[in-house]
Specification:
Elements lengths: L1 E2 L8 E3 L3 E7 L5 E8 L2 E9 L5 E7 L4 E11 L2 E18 L1 H4 L8 H8 L4 E6 L17 E4 L12 H16 L6 E7 L11 H5 L2 H9 L21 H7 L9 E5 L8 H22 L8 E4 L14 H15 L3 E4 L22 H16 L12 E8 L2 E7 L5 E3 L8 E4 L5 E3 L1 E6 L2 E5 L8 E4 L10 E3 L2 E2 L3 E2 L22 E4 L6 E4 L1 E3 L3 E6 L10 E6 L3 E7 L11 E9 L4 E9 L5 E5 L1 E7 L2 E7 L8 E10 L8 E11 L3
Parallel strand pairs: 2-8, 8-11, 8-12, 9-11, 12-13, 13-14
Antiparallel strand pairs: 1-3, 3-6, 4-5, 4-7, 7-8, 9-10, 15-16, 16-21, 17-23, 18-19, 18-22, 20-21, 22-25, 23-24, 26-27, 28-31, 29-30, 30-38, 31-37, 32-36, 32-38, 33-34, 33-37, 35-36
Helix pairs in contact: 2-3, 3-9, 7-8
Length: 653
């Protein structure tokens, strides 16, 4: 007799559930399964062996306990024993590379492995198998093993997120007096699309999905199978390889971290919410200990660009999770993460799409999972805040959120970032805002009198998100996303001095670059001494001579498209008479355009507001914007200007 690998030594099986042990035997007659604790049989089940050598025998599991059990399965020819089995809470963890990202990639890997040592936390991890061929039908078994928390070397390769999630759930339950074993199953594969995780009969049995798969040439057919460029991305390939072999176990809930692979192509991300609802409905029945109340927690994806020219695509996948949660109801939640710092993963080609904050994210996912599963008192926030309505009121838009927990706030007490507003032309520009109630945000722009749309966190390549509601960042949204056009947001990072750097992509494979650079004979740094109310920092520009300045480069997807604006206003702080000009350098020739500043009067104290007219500047790609100051003084310590608030006024207003 041989049992499938998931039914093996050191397993954690879901307590108070019915699991189905699967295996093969040459015997005839009956198969009996027994759970034995302290020498006593506490549960049993049996089945008759059919015509096939394969069998399935179901058995009811006991209450959770840290006391090890033995599972004995016997037939007419002998028996197989599974040793050191615990019963507790099991979570099924799946997705692509951000779920797969191993503990060894985390800076705190050794510390995490030490924290779980000795605790009743265990991980099931599978062998990958060959990548040169996949079965078109579900595989019966696949090599894998359960690791206890004392097997330190076995924890370096499995999912960091699943590991930290298990620890956090265990600790949360322990604080309420429940010492419950936790099992996590790492069933993930980097670069995998959602379609690969669904069984073929479910996919091809839905006419809408079938038509979609045909349209993207991913339909399941014998003629095309294993002949496409990326075999593991075939529809149903990973369900057949990785999921089918563990059928029979049960779980309290599901974790999901995937979506990046489905952001490349418009038909794919537009189908995502519909297909993800299918995923949940199938998996909750397949693995849910209580299929009618099987919680699913999905992580949104971290900002990264997928479009040719910086248009937002990943945001549509993130929005699909919000839509899917609405469709599924209270059984699904998601976690927002755009506020987390992007510590890069040096074992994954230093790719920012794999930020190594998986332990922080895991704790956030565990909090949501705990709130929706174990918090019987209902005191915890169950969902991040999402858009409820956006009402145009005169020259502003009132944005109302639901699920705000303790209310709206910024996590750094600074102005809200990653927030944009658009007029009738649907071109988004950085917005200003006020939190006017715990659930309502007023969004406006001083030179946009007829706003039409608002977006938050929609750019695929913008860092510095800081709007929170309760315990979590607000979910991203764009009010015109339903109109079917790709939204392109040029982030204008030089406007917000709280940001130090911007991502560049095409010419340096995704690295941070400074936003402000000094001109020759000048120095540039951030300064929090001379700032206006509501702003935390300014850009301090210091000169060795009386003429000095700073420059901003146009970078990929953050272009200096200043021709779209009527004028730019810049608040500066200085102590002696000063003149200023903008010099715009174009990439297609050596000539530049110079715009002299108009002084608009005092902005308070030693602050002065300058206006630069942009409506008549020539067309063409601007590669660099230079802000040049000239002061008349013999005192070197007066050769400075603090660049404060920068406002771009759209044309036509």
């Amino acid at each position: 007799m041989k049992l499938c690998c998931v039914f093996s030594d050191h397993a954690v099986f879901q307590a108070l559930a019915t699991i189905t042990l699967r295996g093969e035997t040459d015997a005839k007659g009956s198969v009996v399964a027994e759970i034995i604790r302290n020498g006593e049989v506490i549960s049993s089940g049996s089945t008759e062996i059919g015509d096939s050598s394969r069998f399935e025998v179901s058995i009811n599991t006991p209450e959770a306990s840290v006391i090890p059990c033995t599972v004995r399965v016997r037939d007419a020819l002998g028996e197989t024993v599974i040793n050191d089995v615990l019963f507790g809470e099991v979570w099924f963890c799946s997705g692509q590379s951000n779920m797969e990202l191993p503990n060894i990639a985390q800076p705190e890997c050794d510390e995490m492995i030490e924290k779980i040592k000795g605790l009743p936390i265990r991980m099931y991890f599978q062998d990958y198998g060959p990548n040169d061929a996949f079965s078109i039908t579900p595989e019966y078994d696949r090599d894998g093993k359960w690791s206890t928390s004392d097997m330190s070397d076995s924890w370096k390769r499995p999912s960091a997120l699943a590991t930290a999630f298990a620890l956090d759930i265990y600790n949360r339950l322990k604080t309420i007096g429940k010492d419950i074993p936790i099992g996590v199953m790492d069933i993930s594969w980097g670069g995998s699309p959602l379609r690969a995780w669904m069984p073929g009969d479910i996919l091809m049995g839905d006419e809408r999905v079938k038509d979609f798969l045909v349209r993207i040439d991913q339909d399941i057919s014998e003629e095309k199978w294993n002949k496409r460029p990326v075999l593991f991305q075939q529809a149903s390939a990973l369900y057949n390889r990785r999921v089918a072999p563990v059928v029979g176990v049960k779980a309290r809930g599901l974790l999901w971290y995937q979506g990046e692979c489905d952001a490349w192509n418009e038909p794919i991300y537009k189908m995502y919410a519909y297909m993800f609802k299918m995923y949940y409905e199938y998996y909750s029945k397949l693995f849910g200990a209580d299929p009618e109340n099987c919680p699913l927690v999905a992580s949104l994806c971290y900002p990264w660009t997928y479009g040719e020219s910086g248009e937002s695509r990943l945001s549509y996948v993130n929005a699909a999770f919000v839509d899917a949660a609405e469709m599924i109801g209270g059984k699904m939640s998601f976690v927002t993460l755009a506020d987390l710092s992007s510590v890069w993963c040096d074992v994954q080609e230093n790719h920012p799409i794999h930020p190594t904050h998986k332990y922080a994210l895991a704790r956030r996912m565990a909090a949501i999972a705990y709130a929706n599963t174990y918090d019987k008192a209902g005191t915890m926030q169950k969902y991040p805040a999402t858009l409820e309505s956006a009402e145009i009121k005169e020259s502003s838009i009132l944005v109302k959120f639901k699920n705000v927990g303790g209310g709206l706030y910024t996590n750094d007490k600074k102005q809200i970032r990653c927030l944009y507003i658009a007029g009738a032309d649907e071109y988004y520009i950085p917005a200003e805002s006020r939190i006017i109630s715990p659930d309502t945000l007023e969004v406006f722009h001083p030179y946009l009198k007829e706003p039409k749309h608002v977006s938050l966190g929609w750019s695929d390549y913008e860092i510095g998100f800081n709007l929170m509601a309760g315990e979590y960042p607000v979910a991203p949204f764009a009010t015109n996303m339903k109109q079917g056009e790709i939204i392109n947001i040029q982030a204008k990072p030089f406007i917000n001095h709280d940001l130090d750097a911007v991502w560049t992509f095409k010419n340096c494979s995704g690295y941070y670059r400074p936003i402000w650079y000094p001109l020759s004979g000048s120095s540039v740094c951030h300064d929090n001494a001379f700032v206006q109310s509501g702003y935390s920092r300014s850009i301090l520009v210091i000169g060795e001579e009386n003429t000095f300045g700073a420059r901003v480069r146009s970078v990929d997807f953050n272009e200096l498209d200043l021709q779209r604006y009527a004028f730019a206003e810049i608040d500066i702080h200085h102590r002696v008479p000063i003149s200023a000009k903008l010099e715009l350098v174009y990439s297609d020739d050596t000539e530049s355009t110079t715009v002299e500043a108009q002084k608009m009067g005092s902005a308070g104290g030693y602050f002065e507001r300058l206006r630069f007219e942009l409506s008549s500047i020539k067309e063409g790609k601007i590669s660099e914007m230079r802000l040049i100051f000239t002061t008349e003084t013999d005192e070197p310590y007066f050769r400075f200007a603090n660049v404060g608030r920068i406002t771009l006024a759209p044309k036509g207003e």
